[in-house]
Design a protein that fits this description.
Radius of gyration: 20 Å
Number of helices: 7
Distance between the termini: 27 Å
Mean pLDDT: 89
CATH architecture of the largest domain: 3-Layer(aba) Sandwich
Structural class: alpha/beta
Shape: elongated
Low-confidence stretches: none
Strand content: 25-35%
Number of domains: 2
CATH superfamily of the largest domain: Response regulator
Number of strands: 15
Order of helices and strands: EHEHHEHEEHEEEEEHEEEEEH
CATH topology of the largest domain: Rossmann fold
Largest sheet: 5 strands, parallel
CATH class of the largest domain: Alpha Beta
Amino acid sequence: MLRIAICDDMKEDRDSLKCVLATFMQSNKYEIQIKEYHDGNELLSENAQVLADFNLFFLDIFMGHSNGMEAAKALRNIDISAPIVFLTSSPDYALDSYDVEALSYLVKPIQPEKLKKALERFLKDYRPKSIFLGGKLFVLDDIVFAESNLKRVHIHFKDGTIVELREKLDTLEEQISGQHFIRCHQSYFVNLNYIKRIENETFITTLNTPVLIRKRDFPEIRKRYYDYLKAITGIGVSL
């Protein structure tokens, strides 16, 4: 799953970019998750872990209440290393884009071929976060949940694969970091991206498998899940 942030104060420009991204990524067999921001201040108000989970940023430079170049510098100052593509109506900041190691600098109106070339460069260098489990390399984002049973851990992947390890869940949890993973029970941790719903103090995953939630921590864990949904969609959820 590629996580992409679009920061632009013009809705029509965001909508146009989303259409191009959806078509291009689908043709290259990548799933994407897009979060929109109206200006740099809104983007930078996110906590650092949310920002660190983005794989690609599109930043307009001239926005009503902020400057996209300054937002880019702020991202680099907190060690956010994901590629940045600038979108702007002026070439004036092109040289400054080198200071933040931008992937591309595109002048509006965006030419589809230039955008396509920028995306091709991104995919060429993109490497999904992976983890060694049982002597094999797995993509971290493919993990739906893990459960502990006696002295073994079963890791469930989105394609239905299950990997069994002689390992403690605590040890495995240390290797699997990211704000979209949550330890929701003594015997479970789960990837929030693969939750369909909450039902009777239980997460129901996209595998239609129930994952238990600690009763004493249920309100806090539910809130964290809903906060995550709001963070990635911009839509609030009523408790």
